Amino acid sequence: MDYLKTLTNNNRILSETRAHRFQTQCTADLSLKFALSGNELYQVGKRELSIYPDSFLVLNKGTQYTSKIDSEVPVESFSITFDQKFLTDFSYSYTSTSNKLLDNPDPTSYSNIDFNETIYPFIGDMRFTVQHLKNHLDSGVQDELLINEYLHHCLINYHRIFNNEVNNKAEKLNFTNRSTRIEILKRLNVAKDFMYTNYNKNVSLEELGQHACLSVNHFLRTFKQAFAVSPHQFLTQLRLQRSRMLLKTTNYPINEIVCLVGFECPSSFIRLFKTRYFITPQKYRQTLYN
Q1: Strand intervals (E) in the chain
Q2: 154 has a pLDDT exceeding 60
Q3: What's the maximum distance between 2 C-alpha atoms anywhere in the chain?
Q4: The CATH number of domain 3-168, selected from 3.40.50.720, 1.10.3720.10, 3.40.50.980, 2.60.120.810
Q5: Mean pLDDT (the chain, rounded)
Q6: Which of these, 29, 25, 33, lies nearest to 85 by C-alpha position?
Q7: Cβ distance 26 to 64 under 8 Å?
Q8: Distance CA 52, CA 119 (A)
Q9: pLDDT tens per residue, range 192-209
Q10: Percent of the chain with pLDDT strictly greater than 90
Q11: Dihedral angle of Cα 263, 169, 276, 207, to the nearest 10 degrees
């Protein structure tokens, strides 16, 4: 269902279903971008970031980007943009102590954080909240109190994901200076996003190091520290995750899915799938229709 809903506090929600689209925009405020079906490609500077139903993208205020959809079947896009005042008030109340909130309830002097513009996992409470919000909007709900409560919970859930994907991972890096850890993680996330976008291609270690602006060995060491798996293991997990999505949402034969997600051999794919999910791809697909 297509709609653009602008609330009285200037928070905005956009829902679109398109098979083909190409547009260049600049984000007025912090935006969360979702592809609830299919995939959408974003160009941010020199980076290409492709989002699927298992991921979402965060763009900060003022970021210029190009989005592209080119699909045989319509792609369901969903976007939430938070007004700066709403975001500032949330960030101030979420990060300040109770005493500070009581002594100085006015957040106007508070400076917002620039969040890491990267691809985040669309899981858990974030998925639950966004899907329920969209269900309400699709059914015609106009209650702004209810809608803003959902948006408030989206920010809470995003902060939790941000802490896990950025702050917690940065703390695992063996550098004394926090700013150095954050900078290294930003570089690692650029390489991670490259894998998210090119998981079905032959990705080389040298390419990943180049995207992270790190030497190969430095990249290998720091990636394993932050993500607790090697780049190869991360890419394999991502391919298995995407294969499970294709098994669930398409009728493609398993041999075709093997090629679509970047595996070279059906037998190794079946073995890896069973090791990770404790079921063969064929049996997994069968359970979906029983």
Answers
A1: 3-6, 12-26, 31-37, 40-44, 47-51, 55-59, 64-81, 119-121
A2: yes
A3: 64
A4: 2.60.120.810
A5: 92
A6: 29
A7: yes
A8: 10
A9: 999 999 999 999 999 999
A10: 81
A11: 10
Which single residue is written with the structure tokens 């653009």?
Answer: 4
- At 165, list the tokens: 């994907």
Task: Tell me the two tokens of residue 188.
Answer: 């690692």
Quick one: which H or E segment has residue 180? helix 178-198
CATH number for the domain whose boundaries are 234-287: 1.10.10.60
Query: Which pTM value belongs to this model?
Result: 0.91
Helix (H) or strand (E) holding 103: helix 98-103
Q: Which residue has the tokens 């279903």?
A: 17
CB contact at 8 A, 255 and 243 = no
Contact of 181 with 159, CB cutoff 8 Å:
no
Euclidean distance between CA atoms 280 and 271, whole angstroms = 8
